[in-house]
């Protein structure tokens, strides 16, 4: 019997000691995110944002906050004072997150379009350089007429093609 009582007492002692490891402080940081810790919040956290602390009544979301109850009196005393800023709600934080996500997606899409446009311009410039080199080397070049028949370029056509290539190459770096 004595042995069993000793086991029960040691179990109760371990159970009581383990409750000390539970987070004892709860507060909202600057972004409105709930922080849990076994250490007190930093001194920069205002008292209104500390939700749970030893010796303080637990946070009740349905009860009116003391700052909200005193707000009309403070506004009457100083009408030009700014209203107290409340932490953002979950819906506001979610809307802000979705907005940032959409903005990032739009920026990524724009960057991809610009990269594709630069790649297309580089490919066109490369093709124009190759055509200009072929025209300058005096190679026999052929082309197709409107009926789809192949013919060899004459000197006038080569000169016209060289002018077009020069215009394209003028826009290249």
Task: Provide a concise account of the structure shown.
This protein is mainly alpha-helical and 173 residues long.
Shape: elongated
Radius of gyration, whole Å:
38 Å
Which structural class do the helices and strands define? mainly alpha
What percentage of residues falls in helices of 4 or more residues?
40-55%
- What's the mean pLDDT score? 82
The total beta strand count reads 5
The largest beta-sheet arranges its strands as 2-1-3
Low-confidence stretches: none
Order of helices and strands: HEEEHHEEH
Assess the beta-strand content as a share of residues.
Answer: 5-15%
Give a quick account of the main beta sheet: strands, pairing sense, barrel closure: 3 strands, antiparallel
Query: Could you tell me how far the N terminus lies from the C terminus, measured between alpha carbons in angstroms?
Result: 95 Å
The number of helical segments is: 4
Protein name: DUF4124 domain-containing protein
Biased composition (Low complexity): 53-79
Biased composition (Basic and acidic residues): 93-112
Keywords: Signal
Structural description of this entry:
It is a single chain. By secondary structure, the protein is mostly helical. It is built from 4 helices and 5 strands. The chain has a domain of 31 residues. The chain has a 3-stranded antiparallel beta sheet with strand order 2-1-3, with no helix packed on it. α3 packs antiparallel against α4. The protein is elongated.
